[in-house]
Hints:
This protein is α+β, with helices and mostly antiparallel strands. It folds into two domains: 2-66, no CATH class; 74-106, no CATH class. It is built from five helices and four strands; from the N terminus they run αβαββαβαα. Strand 2 and strand 3 (46-47) form a beta hairpin. Helix 4 (79-87) packs across helix 5 (89-100). The radius of gyration is 19 Å and the shape is elongated. The N and C termini lie far apart (44 Å).
Amino acid sequence: MSKNVKSSKYVPCMSTFGGVGRYKYENLKNIYYSVSKNTRSEIMEVICEHISININHPTELKNYIVSDLKVFYEKIKGLGNLVAIILGYEKYIKLWEKIHNCEFPI
Length: 106
């Protein structure tokens, strides 16, 4: 697999661990997570729930490994950082300024 990733910009796959999934909103409307029995393995009872989105979509969405995409995970420090991640930093700053009635310290 690592040879394929190094030699191609996009490598088709069913799923990867520790990756990032991006979908257009239009592709997710009226599509729901579900859990399906895994008939290919005796160890893993069910198929990862996110695969159901790809399989149950009318056009059957495809997953790819993007060879030049790097994902960095960092520890979330405090509730404020979690809120900033969920809202996005621009909205978080506006909310912070409204709550504190002053300009966000930069």
